[in-house]
Design brief:
A hairpin with a 7-residue loop joins strand 8 and strand 9. It contains five helices and 16 strands. By secondary structure, it is α+β, with helices and mostly antiparallel strands. It has a seven-stranded antiparallel beta sheet, sandwiched between helices.
Length: 337
């Protein structure tokens, strides 16, 4: 069983205490002309006055949910959204991320960012960076310190290397936050690096989101991180224990057998080659591999905190790489079956 565990990245004093925030049928009136010329004929017939036509009052069109609405999305669910960059609309492919241990949900551009989960923080790193030493990335963490203390500490720490500006603002979904922006570097060691720290109230503590980007990529990754943070929502943190690899393996096996009851007998027979295996990837996800009797390799990517799961498929000799399916579920619903 191959277990690849994401190596923990030591967080600097600022990252340990901080987290960030961004900021970002008309109905035509009926013709009511009732004047009619009446011709008298013999024998005269009684005039029949038509009932006035009833026109329905125009109604407001039913409001449809926006394609960008995150409410109810599963962890790992993917969808298309529209963002504004430099005054221009751009279509992007988002993936929904939920972290119950830290207490947030957010959407990120999965084609340009890699999600990396740690024990006390979550990162979204440029696919062009070395994950162990990233340059352009967003880091989100939780601290039990009140907002004012976090802001004071963050401003003090950043002022060692930068000139800073502090702004009060609001995120589109999370609401009020304080933003500490670095402007001019004082040290040559960080001369081409910038940060923006967002401090967001979260119950008795704070969510801290820190965007890291180069001076050159400020209009690129810097702006995209700001757009991401406008999708951030503060949710209740959970004390529920994380799912173990053994539990994930059991739940996925149960899930597969529920869909195809014959698998239970087939897995115990020497006439078929099928099995389930489990490992953990560098992003901190539990990965359960189901090798089907058809030869297909189905992988279930499990968030150990929430239990949310998405699925990929690879058929050796037919497809060259894993392909995401539309299948999403929660393994907690299939434990102890």
């Amino acid at each position: 069983m191959n277990r690849n565990v994401m190596s923990a990245t030591c967080m600097v004093a600022l990252a340990a205490t901080l987290c960030g925030c961004a900021g970002s049928a008309q109905v035509d009136a009926p013709n009511d002309d009732n004047k009619q010329a009446i011709e008298i004929v013999s024998p005269a017939e009684p005039e029949v006055t038509p009932e006035p036509e009833t026109v329905a009052e125009p109604t407001e069109p039913e409001e449809q949910p926006s394609e960008d609405t995150a409410a109810g999305r599963q962890d790992g669910e993917r969808f298309e959204a529209t963002i504004m960059l430099e005054g221009t609309e751009e279509k992007v492919m988002y993936e929904h991320a939920r972290n119950l241990a830290i207490g947030f949900e957010i959407d990120f551009e999965y084609e340009s960012l890699t999600r990396q989960k740690g024990s006390d923080a979550e990162r979204f790193i440029s696919v062009y960076d070395d994950p162990s030493e990233p340059v352009n990335y967003l880091e989100i963490s939780y601290t039990d310190k009140p907002v004012d203390d976090v802001i004071s500490s963050a401003a003090s720490e950043l002022s060692k290397d930068y000139e800073t500006v502090t702004e009060e603002g609001a995120l589109a979904t999370a609401g009020s936050c304080t933003k500490i922006i670095t402007t001019v570097a004082k040290s040559k060691a960080v001369s081409d690096r910038l940060q923006t720290v967002y401090v967001i109230p979260a119950g008795d503590g704070s969510i801290v989101a820190i965007t890291h980007y180069t001076l050159e990529s400020a209009e690129g990754f810097g702006s995209r991180f700001a757009q991401m943070l406008d999708t951030l929502e503060v949710i209740g943190r959970t004390a529920e224990a994380s799912i173990s690899e053994e539990q994930a393996l059991e739940a996925v096996r149960n899930y597969c057998i529920e869909a195809n009851p014959d698998l239970e007998a087939m897995s115990a027979s020497d006439d078929y080659t099928l099995y389930w295996d489990v490992s953990r990837n560098e992003a901190g996800q539990i990965v359960v591999l189901y090798r089907s009797y058809t030869g297909a390799q189905i992988r279930y990517y499990v968030d150990p905190d929430s239990g949310d799961t998405y699925v990929t498929e690879l058929v050796p000799g037919i497809t060259d790489e894993e392909t995401r399916t539309d299948e999403v579920f929660n393994v907690r619903d299939h434990l102890g079956q």
